[in-house]
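Researcher: Let's do a round of design. I'm pasting the structure tokens now; please hold your answer until I've finished.
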């Protein structure tokens, strides 16, 4: 899917800052796409964008109203529907990462059909996909892999895109999750793809390109997380990675939401990732380790990262605290 910008970010009416994490991610990484925010009351968390109503946003040239919130159950609030219909009637597309499909809401689907705008249900892929082939593709590819889910794979991939572009690389972020799709404006929500087609979907996200071009593929899940390993495996084979970056979070006692499952050793993930990646990539190599060190103070974080770097012979960094330039340097050296 390709989502037209600029965006009006719907922040809704929740005072919980975490509820607008999707919108916050879009604004952080693609501020140039965000013309304004729509808050339904003054207590709603703000991104410090201009507050706009639907009519003002239309007059300013907004092309897509983005429902940039996450709520329990992923269900569309009834009192939002008239606002969405108003946006549609003024020619805006609508993008949503909620579990409830926009196309399942009769008033929204009817208005969109009459006005001829697009409804982007990010969690629901309707494209025709092929199974993976494993055929060698030209160009370079990097995939982030994790010790668990929610350890910073999207942030790391986006940070690498920016740092590589700043150094003159022709590098592109390939989104595989709902927030990433809204940030990039295109992509496929891999967790909504039927299992047989995950590797094929990844191949379509990262097609053949010029030998000097880098496609940076956002990882999902973990090979050693029993809940999400299937998605990770499909991504690994479809990505055909030349380079791998391991993502990890310090301080987790167990897999997220799985208290009976201990966190794996970093080395176990790395060995397994390289071994399995060789099915479609002739020489996959780790180029760095990205770690969320937020539970550590600065001295502890630096000591931990230095120890990792010495142990594995790779640059280890916290992308939020220290950036990813050391990993980009390693990519320059290895490729």
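Researcher: That's everything. Go ahead.
Model: Designed sequence:
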């Amino acid at each position: 899917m390709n989502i037209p910008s600029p965006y009006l970010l719907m922040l809704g009416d929740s005072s919980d800052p975490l509820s607008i994490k999707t919108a916050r991610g879009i604004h952080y990484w693609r501020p140039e796409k965000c013309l304004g925010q729509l808050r339904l009351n003054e207590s709603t968390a703000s991104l410090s964008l201009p507050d706009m109503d639907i009519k003002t946003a239309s007059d300013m040239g907004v092309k897509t109203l983005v429902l940039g919130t996450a709520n329990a159950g992923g269900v569309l609030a009834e009192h939002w529907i008239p606002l969405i219909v108003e946006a549609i009637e003024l020619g805006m597309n609508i993008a949503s990462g909620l579990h409830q499909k926009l196309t399942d809401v009769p008033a929204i689907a009817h208005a969109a059909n009459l006005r001829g705008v697009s409804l982007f249900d990010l969690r629901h892929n309707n494209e025709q996909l092929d199974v993976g082939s494993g055929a060698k593709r030209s160009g370079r590819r990097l995939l982030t892999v994790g010790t668990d889910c929610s350890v910073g794979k999207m942030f790391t991939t986006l940070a690498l895109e920016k740092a590589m572009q700043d150094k003159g690389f022709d590098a592109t972020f390939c989104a595989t999750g709902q927030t990433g799709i809204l940030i990039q404006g295109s992509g496929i929500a891999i967790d909504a793809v039927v299992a047989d087609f995950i590797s094929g979907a990844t191949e379509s996200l990262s097609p053949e390109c010029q030998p000097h071009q880098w496609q940076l593929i956002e990882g999902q899940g973990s090979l050693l997380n029993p809940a999400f390993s299937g998605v990770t495996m499909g991504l690994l084979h479809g990505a055909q990675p030349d380079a791998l970056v391991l993502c990890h979070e310090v301080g987790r006692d167990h897999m997220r939401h799985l208290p009976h499952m201990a966190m794996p050793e970093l080395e176990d993930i790395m060995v397994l990732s390289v071994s399995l990646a060789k099915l479609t990539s002739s020489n996959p190599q780790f180029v760095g380790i990205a770690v969320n060190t937020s539970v550590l103070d600065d001295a502890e974080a630096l000591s931990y990262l230095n120890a990792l770097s010495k142990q594995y012979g790779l640059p280890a960094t916290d992308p939020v605290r220290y950036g990813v330039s050391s990993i980009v340097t390693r990519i320059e050296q290895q490729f």
